[in-house]
Amino acid sequence: MTKHNTKKRDWTFAQLMVTAAAREIADKEVVFVGMRLPLLGFLLAKSTHAPEAVGVYELGIVRDTLAPEPIMTMGDLPNLYRAQWLADTADAMGLLQQGGVDVSFIGGAQVDRFGNLNTSYIGGTTNVETRLPGSGGACDLASLANRHIIIMSHEKHRFVPRVDYITSPGFGDGDGWRQHVGLPRGGPSTVITTLGILRFDSNTREMVLASVHPGVTEEMVTENTGWPLQILPDLTQTPEPSEEELAILLRFDPQGYWTGK
Amino acid sequence: MTKHNTKKRDWTFAQLMVTAAAREIADKEVVFVGMRLPLLGFLLAKSTHAPEAVGVYELGIVRDTLAPEPIMTMGDLPNLYRAQWLADTADAMGLLQQGGVDVSFIGGAQVDRFGNLNTSYIGGTTNVETRLPGSGGACDLASLANRHIIIMSHEKHRFVPRVDYITSPGFGDGDGWRQHVGLPRGGPSTVITTLGILRFDSNTREMVLASVHPGVTEEMVTENTGWPLQILPDLTQTPEPSEEELAILLRFDPQGYWTGK
Amino acid sequence: MFLKFGHLEFDTVPKSKLMTLPESIDRFVPDGSSVAMCLCLESLIPFAAAHEIIRQRKQNLTLIGPISDILFDQVIGAACVRKVRAAWVGNVITGSCYNFRRAIESHSLEMEDHSNLTVAMALRAGAMGVPFMPARTALGSDLFKTNASLKTITCPFTDIPLTAVAAIKPDVVVVHVQRADEYGSAHAWGNLGVTRDACLASRHIILTAEEIVSPDVISRDPNRVITPGFRVSAVVHYPWGAHPSPVPGYYNRDHQAFIDYRNESKTPELFDGWQKRWVDNIQCYQDYLIALGEKRISELALKHHVMSETVDYGY
Amino acid sequence: MFLKFGHLEFDTVPKSKLMTLPESIDRFVPDGSSVAMCLCLESLIPFAAAHEIIRQRKQNLTLIGPISDILFDQVIGAACVRKVRAAWVGNVITGSCYNFRRAIESHSLEMEDHSNLTVAMALRAGAMGVPFMPARTALGSDLFKTNASLKTITCPFTDIPLTAVAAIKPDVVVVHVQRADEYGSAHAWGNLGVTRDACLASRHIILTAEEIVSPDVISRDPNRVITPGFRVSAVVHYPWGAHPSPVPGYYNRDHQAFIDYRNESKTPELFDGWQKRWVDNIQCYQDYLIALGEKRISELALKHHVMSETVDYGY
User: Fold this and answer.
1) CA-nearest residue of chain A to D189?
2) Which chains contact C through at least 3 pairs of Cβ atoms less than 8 Å apart?
3) Residue pLDDT, tens place only, B19-35
4) Residue A213 placed within a domain
5) Residue B63 covered by a domain
């Protein structure tokens, strides 16, 4: 995590990021739920403004209620309890491939100005510096959801002009690229980082800083970004998590495993 | 049914055909089970020499035991009782497409010298004389089983030089045709008719008369065949159903709906 | 319905999708629709829903299914159908169906000839969101002549010839199930045919159910759920809604009804009589049960019960 | 087993497929095999079987699966693996796995990079007996650079670009289930991932089961059967055979074991110690349960039970 110049606060940046993720989900949307912070964001959204959101999990789970106990992974047994549907991965992901998923969330190790993500090979495939776990479902979520949201740590070596390997396609090399390669829809809509929130210019498809987290300056963001970052004229500050949101989050992550300090 | 010059006998030609069909099944074979006489043939085989034969039904059923009561269709509830597997058609037929089915049975309305079957359009597609029900699974069974057996009434207007429409491919126009069009395996091995049993020449792939039923002459068969029919030098007589076989058949078709007079 | 999480309770009241059969057909089967039915092949055939389609005199429908037993023939006989995309249209235990024959032989019905596997793969392609699926069946057959949804292609990996089967994405699928809750979650069991694929492939899903049960009954066994409830448009309570086809757990197949139908559909005049008696005179399932009669109903009831072992979804 | 039909009885004695875990791995996982495992993604992971593969020091295996949690890393660490065909190799709750990293970074392991959907479709293609399946995912990604099983093609109907995913047909699939009979029929429930497709796609199937039950229990619910029993090669009784992953109906996920494994696999030396303790020192499930300890076992046991409603397969 990036070091922050923070004043005293009663929330963690992970909590702030989860809260921001939750706010990206509208009620009744179909959400393809990933692991970790995105999973918490979905649970938080369902508990607040999006009670009728439906979650689709690549393990072959669809559920529209909360699990009865905190879960650490999508496959934890409470996540099966009273699921709406338990089925095969190919069928659950069929919903995604059809275009039936409104929004998905993806974590990343390396991202570039057009929102392409690398979670496979740092340094490229011939001179592998670091082998990361790989796509999992991320490439599919980035390819097939109607929009996807990236959540990651904001560090200069992670925010690079061009990723070493495209695991999960963003906007490629700019506007028109997705159509050109044949992706049916979608693209990244938002990047939620440890420092701020970024969106994509609808003409150039380049990442643009939209808000900075409390205690974070514009300069801190640009210094931690590996290309000359565009900044929205009406740059705002990311809203803090409310007390209610923090209270709810504590129930989902009682040990602070994902959102603790 | 063709009129037969029969002496007194205590079995019907339908019973004889079912018995002949049963004898085509070896023990432990995987059989794709169709409707009517083939279904009875499978049940008879399982009850006699092929107790470990496994039945696959396109409705999404696999079973290796007999249904506890007579059934009229594959979907009758006794046919679900203690099935080995109930699943989707695409999965059950996946076993077939993989090459996992040893033998299948097909009925036909019109057949030609190379074993191509028509159950769709008599008269062809532009001037339809008679519309028949269509393929069902027959085209798939003829395309994908390791061998298939045709069961039908032996009449001159049904045994034609060239079918009006190929619903279920046999050997097309002769040897090499199946490979040429891309069918992965198989082809008809046997035609069981109301008059005799025919097989296919391994060089020309043309139908050859192998046996005649009791009371049927060679001439009766050739007269009811629409092309100059080849006849095996060692033409035999089809064995009659045994008393045991008839007793078993009576349990599967107690009303004689399929095998009565 | 309350979603409970620790001490928090969220009051979300999902909208009930329970409606009458006429309302469900009126809303989700407009004229010109493509309608998938008869997806378990010989069982769980949604006859009640098809009869409502006839009563509402729908026009220019496209019917989709592998085999239909006599259902498609009835809807064709009532002049509701413009096109059929199917592998087999007939009467399973008697052979040909007469309305279908008459319609094709008089060129008043368009036919797309499938095999059971190509229908299954076309619906699976629709379910999986891909425009086609490759198959190894039907090569060399004449199905290619009467089905523009089939083309031959070459495998990009093995260079072998293949049949490309275009996806089918019905406007609406009509499925009869054993039990459903009012929100669209339902259990079905037995031979499921292409039902699950067809539900995923279709824009709307109409469920007719033998029983409407508490959501609790369904959600205690999510592996048995036929399709995600959030995608279901209508739930209709209609006992005996699949008669004369069999429904696992509820009633056996009424063979005599299929034999009778053969005789009662031999001519258009005979069919008119059949339609008047079994369709137009029926307004609700109670009417239908009266028409069937108690004797027949008790004859078709299950005589032997075979109950599944329970499984635990605890944590 | 007697097959009863009216007054007739046929005495067919199907061959039992019950065997020990060492025997099943010895017979059906020869060196050089391609082995599909971890097919439910995060649950029902066949750890016991993988550990037996390690104990037998199998060589040159190809591992196939969508995500593997820590299982693939363990088999890689034991030097049994030549190639991995997977979407994700890591530790679900901690991130990267060290043996996998070391192997790739030192070029001692061949990798075919999939996404979860391409693995699912590759196995489904294998299951359906077709050489490939078209997908709409991964276009424009670099998966094409490190996966020769992916090619771009043009749709023969719509002319749009598509990803062709070549079929995967494993030599053997290893599946952990809740209950099986000795003839290979088994019930599994929960999130099934790609298990059903992988079973149909594979030449051999090894089942490890929490419980061996009478055929009667399984056959009373054939819709719950995971794959046709006649295709199963081996059935092994192995309680807790999926620990530390969760098994619906039996035990919860042991998160601490995954966290411990991260620490105990950071260096090759540490991994050797882990392997000695948790794999090489274990000869049977009783040994493993002793190593786990009663306290941990009771902590992981289900605290809440949620039983499914029965269904009737009568006639």
Assistant:
1) A86
2) A, B, D
3) 999 999 999 999 998 77
4) yes
5) yes
CA distance D313 to chain C (A): 5
Helix (H) or strand (E) holding D46: none
Q: Which of residues 185-244 of D touch A (CB under 8 A)?
A: 189-197
The chains in contact with chain A, meaning 3 or more Cβ pairs closer than 8 Å, are: C, D
Structure tokens at D66: 């969508």
Domain that holds residue A182: 13-252
Query: In this complex, do B84 and D185 lie within 8 Å of one another by their Cβ atoms?
Result: yes
**pLDDT tens-digit series, residues B78-134:** 999 999 999 999 999 999 999 999 999 999 899 999 999 999 999 999 989 999 999
- CB of D306 within 8 Å of a chain A CB? The answer is yes
Determine, yes or no, domain membership for D308.
no
Is C203 contained in some domain?
yes
From CA B66, how far away is CA A187, in angstroms rounded? 55
Domain contains B78? yes
Whether the CB of C303 is below 8 Å from some CB of chain D: the reply is yes
Rg (CA), chain B: 18
Q: Which residues of C5-37 are buried (b: 16+ CB within 10 A; e: fewer)?
A: beeeeeeeebeebbbebeebbeebbeeebbbbb
How many domains, chain C? 1
Mean pLDDT of chain C: 95
- The pLDDT of residue B6 is above 90: no
The answer to whether residue B260 sits within a structural domain is no
Q: Is the pTM of this model over 0.80?
A: yes
- What's the pLDDT score for residue A7? 55
The 10s digit of each residue's pLDDT in C104-116 is 999 999 999 999 9
Q: Tell me the residue range of the domain where D40 lies.
A: 13-300
Cβ contact (<8 Å) for D225 and B52?
no
> Residue A170's domain is classified under what CATH number?
3.40.1080.10
How many independent structural domains does chain A possess? 1
How far apart are the C-alpha atoms of B185 and B178, rounded to whole Å?
8
Q: Is D200 inside a domain boundary?
A: yes
Distance linking the first and last C-alpha atoms of chain D: 22
Chain B neighbors of D219, CB-CB under 8 A: 82-84
Residues of A in contact with C8 (CB under 8 A): 47, 248, 251
Does residue D296 sit within a domain?
yes
Nearest to A140 among D97, D124, D137 (CB): D137
D304 closest CB neighbour out of C121, C158, C315 = C315
- Would you give the DSSP letter of residue A26? P
> How do residues A80-136 score in pLDDT, each as one tens digit?
999 999 999 999 999 999 999 999 999 989 999 999 999 999 999 998 999 999 999
- Within a 10 A sphere around the Cβ of B206, how many other Cβ atoms? 18
Strand locations in chain A, DSSP E? 30-32, 54-57, 61-63, 85-86, 103-107, 110-112, 117-118, 121-122, 130-131, 147-152, 159-160, 188-193, 196-200, 207-212, 230-237
Touching check for B96 and chain C: CB below 8 Å?
Answer: yes
List the single residue in D129, D185, D223 with the smallest CB-CB distance to B97: D129
Q: Tell me which residues of chain D, numbers 167 to 186, contact chain B at a CB-CB cutoff of 8 Å.
A: 185
The CATH number covering residue C262 comes to 3.40.1080.10
Write out pLDDT tens, residues C290-305: 999 999 999 999 999 9
Which member of A76, A97, A135 has the closest CB to residue D113?
A135
Please check the confidence at residue A1 and state whether its pLDDT lies above 60. no
Q: Do residue D158 and residue C192 have CB atoms under 8 angstroms apart?
A: no
pLDDT at position D270:
98
